[in-house]
Structure formats: structure tokens, C-alpha cells
Amino acid sequence: MSEEIRRYYDQQVVQEAGITGAGLVWFMGRDHLSPSYVNRDEIALNAGLWRLGASERCLNLFQAMGIRDNELVLDVGSGIGGPGRDLQAAFNSQIVGINLSLNQLISLRQLSRLANPDNPSYTSVINADVQALPLTPTSFDHAFSINVFYHIPNPDLAIAEISRVLKGDGRFGLDDWFLTDQASDRTIDTLRLKWSTSPQGFHRFSQITNLMRQHGLRVTWTFDYTYEAAAFLTEERFGRVFDQQVRSRLIEVFPRLYQYPGYQPAHAVLAADQLREDILYMGEVYRNGQVVYRQLLVEKF
Amino acid sequence: MINLERDLLTELPAAPDSVDSSELYQACISGLNVISELTGIPPEKVVRGLSEEAKRLKELKKVEKSAPDLLISRLALLPTTLAYSGTKRDPSEIRQKAFEAISQISTARDRTYVLR
């Protein structure tokens, strides 16, 4: 890893840039807000490489999409831009990011300038809702969405909009966790509370693929990360690494990130342990068959 | 009206007659309403989710977590999960509301337990 890249991921740089839009999750996956599901020991057992695991998963999707140099690609729900920066580094794409949170877009710009001052990734960013894209029809070669769709209240509108802005032979790469038909109402409510989605957040896989068909998109490829995620997100693997390599860091940075009257060190401990529990709960729902993590490649027809 | 006392605060030890525990109860209700307001999830579903969390911790991990601790944990993580979820809300508003609620619950809990 070059010195520039090392500095880019350094906490001092993050503090200088005033990065917002990631919270404590930054200290696990840096600018990749989606989880690392790589279960190979060299990545799974080294929290410092979890970002690399998330990046590897995103690049798997980008390669399947067959993106070529200089094509115009829409990043749906760009967050703070980790996947887009990886895409640009690999394929030199022109990326337009759309995102609901303005704060995340500000962080995206800051991080992109830090990563590559001469040629920052993302041609432009737009503060907009995927359910009503302020974009002209058939204007993008491709679109992708990384770990975003579960936040969207109305996937019908979102898929219709993505289909509308894709060119005739455009491809859409979707990476997300989906409910299976076995998911109970109680599990859905718990997931929504734990991950602060909209009250309509989290969608069934069958519902999403049906909507794709309805809006002129055909699924041509799927890749399933459920087994790997389920094997990684256990007490013995994720829990142990979290306790040894992550927990104390979260407890240390919590009062620096969040300053408020009446702070007690116990609050930081509760927050770190809650995050641990919420992530381990993901593993549970993967193992009990209520949730899957998949990548889909769809083509407009 | 949410039956928070039945669903969530059943683990909270009853205060002696001389101590008014309603301050802690009210602080917990406020915290619950903050979670509901910031996430958009109806209060009864927040209660159900927290109760589920308590059951899960007890069954799987043999950990007994009190209602104030459940609420503080969730509130302390809320600025992270909301930021991560890409909310349109102002982060400073989220932080202010969440941490005010934490402070209220912490203060009321410490006072109640000290008095007991």
C-alpha cells in the first residue's frame, strides 16, 4: 500500500476532512459502508483488511457488469463513495453519484480529493432520491447500487427510475441483502430497528426480481454471498476479531465523535457492544434462512 | 398509549415507596419517542424490537440487560446507524436529540439507583 493510500485511510486525515456520514462504521470498513463478507482467514481475521473484503465483493460485481473505460456509470446511493473510487481505479469510468444525504456527498467529495487530488473520482454528485431521479432518460451506460436498496421505501419506483435512465443495452448491478419468503414479521421489524432503515425498509428477493421484470430488466447473473457471510459472522470469527481488534478503538473514538453533556464511558461501551450484537444478528438471519446476500446483474431489454 | 411498563420495564426493580421512580419512567418514554421520531418506526414496534433484543441476549448470551440500558445502547448507536443509512436529517439534530435522551435516562437511572 502506497504512502498516499495509507494516509488516506488514516484517522488523522479523516478528522482533518471532518468526515461525516459513516459514524462508528468508518472504523470497521473505512469508506466502504457495506460489510466485508470475505471469510478467508487472511481477511476475515484481520479487521484492518475488512475494507479490502468489501472492495473485493464490489469489484466482483463490476467485473460481471463488463464495464469498459470511460463509460458513464450511475452510482445509486453512493454514500461516501468507497465503491465508486474502487470502480474508477479499476476501469477509469465516469461516475455520477446520487445520494439522499448531502452530508455523505460532502464526505464523498473530500475523500475523493484526498485519494486522487489530480483526478478525483465522480464526475458529479447529485443530492437526490432514487425514487425520483432528476436525470434524462437513456443517459447512462450502466448503473450500480451497493448495499442501498434495503433502505429504499418503494423499490417499485426506484427500479422504474433506474430502468428509465439506462441506455438500451445498459446493465444494472445490484448488491444487497434481501428477505427470503421465510422471513417473519418479527425479524423484519428487528432488522428495521437495528439498521435504521425507513419503516418500509428491507425487501423480499422474489419481490425485487418481479419488479425487475415489470420494468423491462432481465436478470442474467446472480452471485450469492450468504454462505460466506453466515460463516464469517459468528461469535468465533467476527465476534472474536471484533473484541480483539475493533472494540477498544470504538470505545476510544466514541467520545471524540460525539461530545455531549452527561457523557459516561459506559455509553461508549454500550454503543460498541450494540454494534457488535447488531452485526452478529446479521449472521443469525443468514444462517436461519430468513435473509440472503446477493449480487444481481440485470440487463435492459 | 404504549404499555412500555409491561413490555419493556418489567426488568426494572421496583423502587421503594419513598422513592419516586416516575422520573426514570418518563426519561425512558422520552428516549423511546426519540428513537421513534428519528427512525420513523412506530413506538410500539420500537418497544417490540427492544423486547426482542432483551429476550435474545438472555437466551443466547445469558446477559440480563435492563430497559434503560437497552434504550441507551440503541440511542448511542443511533447517530451511527442513521448516518450510515444516508438519512436526509441534519446529523447535529440527530446527535442532539439522541444524546439528550441518553443523558436524561442516565441521570434518572443513577438518581433512582442511588436513592434505592
Shape of chain B: globular
Low-confidence stretches of chain A: 5-9
Instruction: Specify the CATH homologous superfamily of chain A.
Output: Vaccinia Virus protein VP39
Gross morphology of chain A: globular
Describe this structure in words.
Chain A is of the alpha/beta class. Chain A has one domain (3-183, 198-226, 293-297): Vaccinia Virus protein VP39 (Rossmann fold). Helix content of chain A is 49%, strand content 18%. The longest helix of chain A is centred in the last third of the chain and has 23 residues, at 235-257. The radius of gyration of chain A is 19 Å and the shape is globular. Chain B has one domain (23-115). Chain B is globular. The two termini of chain B are 28 Å apart.
Key structural traits:
heterodimer; A: 301 residues; alpha/beta; Rossmann fold; 7-stranded mixed β-sheet; 13 helices; 7 strands; B: 116 residues; mainly alpha; 5 helices; globular
What would a concise description of this structure say?
Chain A is α/β, with parallel strands linked by helices. Chain A is built from 13 helices and 7 strands.
Topology of helices and strands:
The complex is a heterodimer of chains A (301) and B (116).
Chain A: H1 3-8, H2 11-17, H3 26-29, H4 41-44, H5 50-65, E1 72-76, H6 82-91, E2 94-99, H7 102-115, E3 124-127, E4 140-146, H8 155-165, E5 166-179, H9 185-195, H10 205-214, E6 217-224, H11 226-232, H12 235-257, H13 265-287, E7 291-300
Parallel strand pairs in A: 1-2, 1-4, 2-3, 4-5
Antiparallel strand pairs in A: 5-7, 6-7
Helix pairs in contact in A: 5-6, 11-13, 12-13
Chain B: H1 4-7, H2 22-39, H3 43-61, H4 67-84, H5 91-115
Helix pairs in contact in B: 2-4, 2-5, 4-5
